[in-house]
Amino acid sequence: MDPDAAGRHSPGRLAPVADRRAWQPAGLVVQLLAVVIAAIPVVTELWHLKNRDGIAHLTTAVLPLAWHETSHTTSALVLLGAGAVLFVAGSVVLARPHVRNRWLLVVAVPVAAVAGPLILGSLVAIVAILLYLFIDSLDPFPDKDRKRRRRRQPPDLSASQQN
């Protein structure tokens, strides 16, 4: 709704922002900071695993191990929670120039900021599982150790020539 004659806005509505361009970089910086904060515990656990076990390179088993060990410490969970809250705040900052309804900005944007990565992560997991299940049929270069079809033996011509 447009402001009334006195320049006031109706309750529940936010005034338009003066400069939309300033909100976008600020929101992106806040979200980037949130991702960095959430990654700190996992990266430090990877560093400790590498130094403790002498792992020279990352393998597919190391990252889940680091994630599992990270999820059992209180400080790591606090950092992950702070990263999630900061990511939601960055999403609100990004959405502010485009949203004028206060409830939409306070409720719908944070829900979308949390649900979006969860839904995308679930879709990635489903695609990864499907690829894992059907990888044999997609493999253009089968391994040499797999069972091969038996080749037909050529007919024995010596038996037919004896008659």
Your description of this structure?
With 163 residues, this protein is mostly helical. Helices cover 63% and strands 0% of the residues. It has six helices and no strands. The protein has helices at residues 23-53, 62-70, 74-95, 102-133, 135-138, 157-161. Helix 1 packs antiparallel against helix 3. The radius of gyration is 29 Å and the shape is elongated. The chain starts with 22 loop residues before the first helix and ends with a helix. 9% of the residues are buried. The model has no long low-confidence stretch (mean pLDDT 77).
Number of strands: 0
Q: How is the biggest beta sheet arranged? A: none
Over the alpha carbons, how many angstroms does the gyration radius reach?
29 Å
| Subunit organisation of the chains | single chain
* Bulk shape: elongated
What is the string of helix and strand elements?
HHHHHH
What structural class do the secondary elements suggest? mainly alpha
Strand content is under 5%
- Overall mean pLDDT score? 77
Helix percentage range: 55-70%
Task: Please report the distance between the alpha carbons of the first and last residues.
Answer: 103 Å
Number of helices: 6
**Uncertain segments:** none
Features:
163 residues; mainly alpha; 63% helix; 0% strand
Give the gist of this structure.
This protein has 163 residues and is mainly α. It has helices spanning 23-53, 62-70, 74-95, 102-133, 135-138, 157-161.
List the helices and strands and how they pair.
Elements lengths: L22 H31 L8 H9 L3 H22 L6 H32 L1 H4 L18 H5 L2
Helix pairs in contact: 1-2, 1-3, 3-4
